[in-house]
Amino acid sequence: MKVVFTGGGTGGHFYPIIAIIERLNELLEREKFIDVEIYYLSDNPYDERILFENGVRFKKLTAGKLRRYFSFLNVIDLFKTIFGVIRAIGALYVLYPDVVVGKGGYASFPTLIAARILRIPVIIHESDSVPGRANIIASKFARRIAVSYPEAAEFFPKEKTAFTGNPIRRAVAIPMREGAHDILKLDSTVPIILILGGSQGAAIINDAIMQAAPRLTEKYQIIHQVGVKNLDAMQNMAEVVIGKSQYRDRYKMYGYLNEITLRTSAGVASLVISRAGSTIFEIATWGIPSIIVPITDSNGDHQRKNAYAYARAGGCIVIEEANLTTNLISSEIERLMTDASLREKMSISAKSFAKNDAAEKIAEEILLVLKEHAK
Question: What CATH class does 2-168+356-374 carry?
Answer without folding.
Answer: alpha beta
